[in-house]
Each structure stands twice: as C-alpha cells, then as structure tokens.
Specification:
alpha/beta; Transcription Regulator spoIIAA; 34% strand; SpoIIAA-like_sf; STAS/SEC14 domain-containing protein; SpoIIAA-like
Length: 117
C-alpha cells in the first residue's frame, strides 16, 4: 500500500510505503508525481519505508514504465530502518543525477529539512 501526503515543500511528495505494493499504488504515485512535475519540473521525494513486503508482478512491470520519470527527481530522501540502506545505495546508482540520502525513522524531520535545502 502507498499513502501519498502533502509535503512541507511545494515541489515535494511524501510517500509512505507499507506492506505489499500493487499496480494501483504505482498508478496513484505516478498521477501525483506527474502533477508536481508539470508544475515544478523537478520533484523532491520523501520516501517512508515501513514494513514493506515487496511488489506484485503487475507492479514490477508498471514500475518499469516509471523509468521515464527518473530524470525529474531532484532529491530523494529515504526514511527507513537500516535493512533498507542497501536499496538506497542501489537507487543512488540508478539515479546518477539525483541526490539520494538515507535517514533512520527517528530522523524524519532531518530528512524533510534536507529536501528543503
């Protein structure tokens, strides 16, 4: 499940991921991302990972279509426990023009400030 909430900055999206991510979740994310991208061109994302269980096959295929949007991500702050650090490192390699930082859950406010810098 993905929950999208307004972020403290106008050009940002806050995305909370829990449990299993489905195709419908990615469609919702893409809709919000596209709206922000049209308004601001570059988008910052605060990604909160909490007990994520993976993705359905449909979701993985849908996720591949999201590649076209990667160049519009300016900063990506990943807030998760330490087991997700490896994913953050892999994301950083996939997004060479994007600033990617990892924060532990206790430092969510710090992540929000970093996105606003």
């Amino acid at each position: 499940m993905i929950k999208i909430t307004p972020a403290k900055m106008d050009n940002a999206i806050e995305v909370e991921v829990q449990g299993k991510v489905e195709k419908e979740d990615l469609n919702l994310f893409e809709e919000f991302f596209t709206m922000k991208k049209q308004e601001y061109n570059k988008v910052n994302i605060l990604l909160l990972l909490d007990k994520m269980e993976g993705m359905s096959l449909k979701c993985v295929l849908e996720d591949l279509k999201m590649v076209q949007h990667l160049k519009y991500i300016q900063k990506l702050a990943i807030v998760s426990d330490k087991k997700w650090i490896e994913i953050g490192v892999k994301l950083e390699r996939l997004l060479p023009e994007t600033n990617v930082e990892h924060f532990i859950p206790e430092n969510k406010v710090q992540a929000q400030h970093w996105l606003g810098e």
